[in-house]
Amino acid sequence: MRLISLHRCLGSLLITASAVTVPAAQPGSQARSRPAPNSAEGTQRADAESDSSQQGLIPFVVEQIRVRRNRYPGDEGKNHTMVKAPFRQVVADAGRGTVQVLCDDKPVALGTVVSAEGYILTKASELTGKIVCKLPGDKMYEARLVGTHDDTDLALLKIDAQNLVPVRWARDGSPAVGSFLATAGMAGEPLAIGVVSVGPRTIAAPSGVLGIAVGQADDGPRVDQVLEGTSAARAGLQANDIIVRINDRVVTTREALIDMVGGFRPGDRVHLKVRRGEEELDISTTLGNRMTGSRRDFQNRLGGELSERRGGFAKAIQHDTVLRPRECGGPLVDLDGRVVGVNIARAERVASYAIPTSVVLDVLDELMPETVARKDSPKPAKTEPRTGRVTAARPVR
Q1: 26-36 b/e with 16+ CB inside 10 Å = b?
Q2: What is the pLDDT of residues 139-193, one digit of tens each?
Q3: Can you give the C-alpha Rg of the chain in angstroms?
Q4: What digits encode the pLDDT tens for the residues 291-330?
């Protein structure tokens, strides 16, 4: 008998979504005739047997978790090894279409294979330096940035590889609230399990923060104070520095500086031209989040590191999967193994965001070369308007 059951074991949400074999009858037990499956009596008996089977399953799972807890301390809750194991088959196909993205030899994100010809989607704001994709089997390929899509934070990469395994997209809308989801990994097991919390919606963008107190000098906005632990401090800004340019824009007043920085998002990379005494310096830094350091931010970070860019998405699904920022960019699948979205941010302690498949396919339609897009990414009937701005290939930060 195949069961998809939901239990609460040891105070944690335990999900079992697999083929579960109910133990055979004990020797000496008498077989009873079964009523027709579609009869009222048959339905009641099937329900009773299902409940009985689930009750018999709980002690077994509890005992296995107790044994494994002793063997693997800290591996608990809905991401417990025992909970994730039944989802292996669910993520098997998507796992073959998942890669790891490294920048300057450091893992920064996952990638989702969208074409057999070497096209891969990932999280754009994490890309910096030399980009390499690690495929299942540990093969490494240097990647070229094809383009980015600002309102989804997606980037399209190209590697010189053939016969990759593209993921299989879900084409019947976004998953309903309460649906179980699994994040595919490269090791044959799901990285994490979660449930849809909120359907597709716009995630507002907070303002980026540089982390300085700024005053006005005769020759431009002056850094009066550099706040500890901020992007300005990490970049090496100092008190009395004069900021004369942000990216390609000249800045002459304190108010103009504040307005320019406020127009960026957390996670955006900015390039500053700074005058320090008689010297002019070029300084680059990644803007922080205004929430960083707040009580709410502290509480959210108790569950682990959060993504630098975790807002400003035209449309995203919210789910309660616990991910690490470097596990974003990969496929999110339903219980049928179909990809319902691409994970894009770990936003809060129990909230992660994914760009839904319908939006991802629109982005692919704009970013991928036309012939490849038609062959490898056939689009469903349009149900949503296009969103976002596309940036063609640009130098990687």
Answers
A1: eeeeeeeeeee
A2: 999 999 999 999 999 999 999 999 999 999 998 888 999 999 999 998 778 999 9
A3: 25
A4: 554 455 545 555 578 898 888 899 999 999 999 999 999 9
Task: Classify residue 153 by burial, with Cβ atoms within 10 Å: 0-12, 13-18, 19+.
Answer: buried
Contact, 157 vs 146, CB < 8 A? Answer: yes
DSSP three-state, residue 361: helix
Q: Is residue 117's pLDDT more than 50?
A: yes
Rounded to 5 degrees, φ, ψ at 4 are -120, 105
Task: Please name which of 292, 285, 295 lies closest in space to residue 306, comparing C-alpha atoms.
Answer: 292
CA 138 to chain centre: 22
The residue behind tokens 């107190």 is 213
Alpha helices in 141-230 (DSSP H): none
Token pair of 370, please? 């036309």
Q: At 135, give phi and psi (nearest 5°).
A: -90, 160
**pTM to 2 decimals?**
0.67
Name the amino acid, one letter, at 334: D
| Exposed/middle/buried for residue 314 (C-beta within 10 Å: 0-12, 13-18, 19+) | buried
> Is-contact 322 154, C-beta < 8 A?
no
Q: 122 with 155: CB under 8 angstroms?
A: yes
Place of tokens 């960026």: 264
The answer to whether 222 and 241 are in contact (CB under 8 A) is: yes
- β-pair partners for 131: 103
Sole residue written with tokens 């300005």: 232
Distances (CA, A) of 131 to 39, 105, 114, 251, 394: 61, 8, 18, 32, 13
Strand, helix or coil for residue 84: helix
Q: Which two tokens stand for residue 110?
A: 């996952």
Count CB-CB contacts under 10 A for residue 303: 13
- pLDDT recorded at residue 206: 80
Per the CB < 8 A criterion, the answer to whether 254 and 221 are in contact is yes
**Degrees (nearest 5) of the Cα angle 380, 386, 388?**
135
